[in-house]
Amino acid sequence: NFEKALQIANGLPNAGVTGTINHSVIHQTIEVSVMISQIKEIIRSVLGLVINSANFWNSVVSAITNTFTNLEPQVDENWIVWRNLSSTQRSYFYKILFSILNEDTGRFMAILPIAFEITVDVQEQQLLVITIKDSA
Question: Dmax of the chain from CA atoms?
């Protein structure tokens, strides 16, 4: 719940919310690698900071990649909530949290929680083995 999360964040002592986004990226069919690049750019713009750390951006790409691929070993993890919509349509929520504190952020830690809602028209077994070159 976006509004509830924002309410909690605004209530944290010694913290401030500098920006929020509640954004939908909708594609009927897209190669996973293209979606990963698009989401990385959305994250870059939402942060509102210039982050030069290659390690940070590599971690961002890795986390986003795991949102769409390599799902089979993650099936029972707490950061994924699964829903069957039909025999050929599957939906899941995937939660990740990015944080960075370095020379780019100065005295402040930048934190970016993200919840993805992903719906695909594929059977469960096919979804669990999607790669970055697949389209869904």
Answer: 50
Q: How many CB atoms lie within 10 A of CB 27?
A: 11
pTM for the predicted model, two decimal places: 0.81
Instruction: Confirm if 65 and 39 have CB atoms less than 8 A apart.
Output: no
Kindly state the DSSP code that residue 118 receives in the 8-state scheme.
E
- Identify each DSSP E strand in the chain by its residue range: 80-84, 90-100, 110-120
Among the listed residues 87, 96, 77, the one whose alpha carbon sits nearest the alpha carbon of residue 125:
87
Residue 112's SS3 state is strand
According to DSSP, the residues that pair with 80 across neighbouring strands are: 94
- List the chain residues with pLDDT less than 50: none
Q: What is the CA radius of gyration of the chain?
A: 16
pLDDT of residue 5: 82
Residue found under tokens 């949102």 = 67
Nearest in space to 40 (alpha carbons), one of 56, 64, 19: 64
CB 136 within 8 A of CB 85: no
Angstrom distance (rounded) from CA 103 to CA 105: 6
Domains observed in the chain: 28-127 (3.40.198.10)
